[in-house]
Amino acid sequence: MYKCFLIKYSEIGLKGKNRNYFEGCLVTRIKNVLGKLGDYGVYREQGRVFVECPEDYDYDDTVEALGTIFGISGYAPVFVVEQTDWDSVAKGVCDYVRDYFDSHSFTFKVFCKRGDKSYFKTSPEICADAGEVLLNAFPDLKVDVHNPDVKLTVEIRNKTYIYSDCLPGPGGMPVGCNGRAMLLLSGGIDSPVAGYMIAKRGVSVDAVYFHAPPYTSERAKQKVVDLARIISRYTGPINLNIVNFTEIQMYIYETCPHEQLTIIMRRYMMRIAEILANRGDSIALVTGESIGQVASQTVQSLTCTNAVCDMPVFRPLIAFDKEDIVKISEKIGTYETSVLPYEDCCTIFVAKHPVTKPILHIIEHSEKLLEEKIDEMVKTAVDTREVIRIKD
Ligand code: ATP
Ligand code: MG
């Protein structure tokens, strides 16, 4: 049983003077995630992070949890030898091969990394000598430098770390190192994926969902809560704002030209999302929009929606085909929930022939018709929102 994992990170290793900050974010995130599973030790050393597992830890749960942590490019279960003198290293590689492999008949190649460059053997010497030790100890092993069955890595630091299996991490940057953004989260396929992708770049996520009771049901709301919970495994905790949009939607429906409904509605969603972002500590908005997917996502429509925001609006899926978005949603586990057939507030008052090339000044002109009551309605919607704290 492995007692330790070696964590590799690529991108944050390139951050020069800021590297310390990013490494700190990664360590904090690993501690938070693994802290729920047990008492793990997490420490860093020269471009590596190590996770020490508690006695009774569950291997599969640990591997799964590490696989949700952005910033990790790969992670290897490692065999640790406390000493670094050559006898200990040589014994360590033999113990490792004997104890961790069922068969001792395979081809291999040894790789080496030295944290301590003053170590008395060079890397090529360590590789050659460790190879020789193994060939002597296990007669059925063979060296194959081109296409080995087993790539055995020996890292000599203040201890010796031996491993042969590096699992791929999700990549990206540790959540929390790049500020916080407000995700417009609907019950669809796209917006949970957008939240996942922005978190992958290190951005923490809060979310807002607009519902329209009694036109949208409690089940539709629950679906969004469930989606937030699924993505929180990757994003960390989410403050989910549930905003009652019924009054605003009805007012737009009764007052504005029907073919402009969706665009005007979307503009009010963005306005409210920005108000909520400013009340929390979000400094950007995030949506699941993708060019051309529906009438409200043509470039002209996006231009009209965008015009109400002062904050940057990030649309991580802007150039993605639906098929590719679906693949990600399957991978992260949101797809099955997203396709549950509950109504969304956008689909309820939808026009038969929505504008696909809205013109901003015409939309603004229509919105003037709302002047009498809309500010008060927006204020009420914001003030009466429900906030659910989604813990990861
Ligand atoms: P999704 O699959 O995310 O629902 P969609 O293809 O259905 O997206 P639209 O309904 O046009 O697209 O919505 C575009 C974006 O607007 C969504 O990705 C989401 O960010 C936001 N949005 C739409 N409806 C809501 C809602 N009810 N609450 C919060 N955000 C919403
Ligand atoms: Mg939708």
Describe how the helices and strands are arranged.
Elements (H helix, E strand, L loop, with lengths): L3 E5 L10 H17 L5 E5 L2 E5 L6 H8 L7 E8 L4 H15 L6 E8 L8 H15 L4 E2 L6 E7 L3 E4 L3 E2 L11 E5 L5 H11 L3 E8 L6 H18 L2 E7 L1 H10 L5 H19 L5 E2 L12 H8 L6 E2 L7 H11 L2 H4 L6 H4 L11 H9 L5 H10 L2 E5 L2
The site of magnesium ion has 4 residues, from loops.
Main sheet attributes: strand count, strand direction, barrel closure: 9 strands, mixed
Q: In terms of quaternary structure, what is this?
A: single chain
Q: Could you say which overall geometry the principal axes of the C-alpha atoms support? A: elongated
Poorly predicted runs of 5 or more residues: none
CATH top level class name of the largest domain: Alpha Beta
Structural class: alpha/beta
- Predict the CATH topology of the largest domain: Rossmann fold
Mean pLDDT over the residues = 94
Tell me the Rg in angstroms: 27 Å
Tell me which CATH architecture of the largest domain applies here.
3-Layer(aba) Sandwich
* Ligand inventory: adenosine-5'-triphosphate, magnesium ion
Helical percentage: 40-55%
Number of domain units: 2
Termini separation comes to 28 Å
